Amino acid sequence: MLQFELLKTEGLARRGRLTLNHGVVQTPIFMPVGTYGTVKGVTPRSLEEMQAQIILGNTFHLWMRPGLDVIRQFGGLHRFERWDRPILTDSGGFQVWSLGEMRKISEEGVRFASPVNGDKLFLTPEISMQIQTVLDSDIVMQFDECTPYEVKGHLTTDAEARASMELSLRWAQRCRAEFARLENRNALFGIVQGGMFEHLREESLAALVDMDFPGYAIGGVSVGEPKEEMLRIMAHTPHRLPAHKPRYLMGVGTPEDLVAGVAAGVDMFDCVMPTRNARNGHLFTRFGDLKLRNARHRADERPLDETCSCYACRGTTAPDGSVAGGFSRAYLHHLERCGEMLGPMLCTIHNLHYYLNLMREIRESLEAGRFEAFRVQFAKDRARGV
Ligand SMILES: CNc1nc2c(CCNCC3CCCCC3)c3nc(N)[nH]c(=O)c3cc2[nH]1
Ligand SMILES: [Zn+2]
């Protein structure tokens, strides 16, 4: 089941509410990425504390390990990974594509060797729907081909992007049929392809809208293309999708991309940056990015971000309201230099909190009709420097 209510709009930006089988999600929203059934480095309790509303699961990886029999035994991913709020799973197509050469694509599906044990595997629209039905995710992504930006050193041509987009459309039909046959009560999203070609994006979008999905994603971006190409597609496509249905921009992006994406009419985002960058000591703050390894942090007593209320920056607030101070940049720099695991843990808490808090501030600005003012202040603050 999926219900989407538009609460407020400001230009192309929207404040909405998405009701799914496992709960309600306020949009615009950032969705933390959980690859192997966990958001790396944080506990489900920390995710709830930072008010994560929906997380991503990974069809491809979970299918291989622990395998569907184990997930089925637990009645789905929610009970297995102890997360009782909404989950969105990707279809596996992109993950196979990321494997690089070890795959063979045909009309039927994708053949590839398991990166876990080398077994010959076959993923099709039908098998992807069957896997995501066992996972029982609230939002299921269609099995698609993520059209590459370049192939063997040449930019994907219009003809190549068309062929790929039309394959994904035929796969969208097969996903819809299989999803209905399985009597899956969750929500299946179509994925718009079309490469960097606006007219192909419009053809893909029109065909998917005809298939009447409850929600839509924009795929085929953030695949190595120049930033201005991604921004061109992000400006072109989202607002052409049905206004009364949720719009998900896959694999995007930096804090600046999220703000620009909301302004272009996007409701949902996912990206590995906050978690992956945290593990590399690359922190996001209100006033710019911070590289923890830099020697200038060696004796700096300040928190990462004095305006941040996360556990790493602010510590915990005692029942009497007194705040047990957070951690200093000096301490975090020390953990990073020693390779201590508490380092990535605290940095992941901060980065995820930063992304989730940014989206919360965006939602509040939309509710107050001052998203434009928020955008101006956001850009000024981020340029200030840490
Ligand atoms: C990073 N850039 C990018 N990601 C894309 C993704 C993946 C989005 N993230 C999913 C999570 C990844 C980690 C595990 C959990 C699921 C894309 N996925 C699909 N199906 N199609 C795309 O065109 C597609 C395009 C994408 N571009
Ligand atoms: Zn913080």
TrEMBL record:
HAMAP family: Q_tRNA_Tgt
Record-annotated tRNA-guanine(15) transglycosylase-like domain positions: 13-382
NCBIfam families: Q_tRNA_tgt (TIGR00430), tgt_general (TIGR00449)
Cofactor dependence: Zn(2+)
Reaction(s) the record says it catalyses: 7-aminomethyl-7-carbaguanine + guanosine(34) in tRNA = 7-aminomethyl-7-carbaguanosine(34) in tRNA + guanine
Gene3D superfamilies, per database record: Queuine tRNA-ribosyltransferase-like (3.20.20.105)
Region (RNA binding): 251-257, 275-279
Pathway listed: tRNA modification; tRNA-queuosine biosynthesis
PANTHER family tied to this protein: QUEUINE TRNA-RIBOSYLTRANSFERASE (PTHR46499:SF1)
Entry superkingdom: Bacteria
Protein name: Queuine tRNA-ribosyltransferase
Keyword list, A-Z: Glycosyltransferase, Metal-binding, Queuosine biosynthesis, Transferase, tRNA processing, Zinc
Residues annotated to bind Zn(2+): 308, 310, 313, 350
Function noted in UniProt: Catalyzes the base-exchange of a guanine (G) residue with the queuine precursor 7-aminomethyl-7-deazaguanine (PreQ1) at position 34 (anticodon wobble position) in tRNAs with GU(N) anticodons (tRNA-Asp, -Asn, -His and -Tyr). Catalysis occurs through a double-displacement mechanism. The nucleophile active site attacks the C1' of nucleotide 34 to detach the guanine base from the RNA, forming a covalent enzyme-RNA intermediate. The proton acceptor active site deprotonates the incoming PreQ1, allowing a nucleophilic attack on the C1' of the ribose to form the product.
Binding site for substrate: 90-94, 144, 193, 220
Enzyme class: transferase
Subunit and interaction comment: Homodimer. Within each dimer, one monomer is responsible for RNA recognition and catalysis, while the other monomer binds to the replacement base PreQ1.
Stored Pfam families: TGT (PF01702)
EC number, as in UniProt: 2.4.2.29
Residue numbers annotated as active site: 90, 270
InterPro entries: ArchSynthase1/Queuine_TRR, TGT, TGT-like_sf, tRNA_ribo_trans-like
UniProt entry tagged with the keyword Signal: no
Cofactor binding: number and manner: Binds 1 zinc ion per subunit.
MF terms (GO), sorted A to Z: glycosyltransferase activity
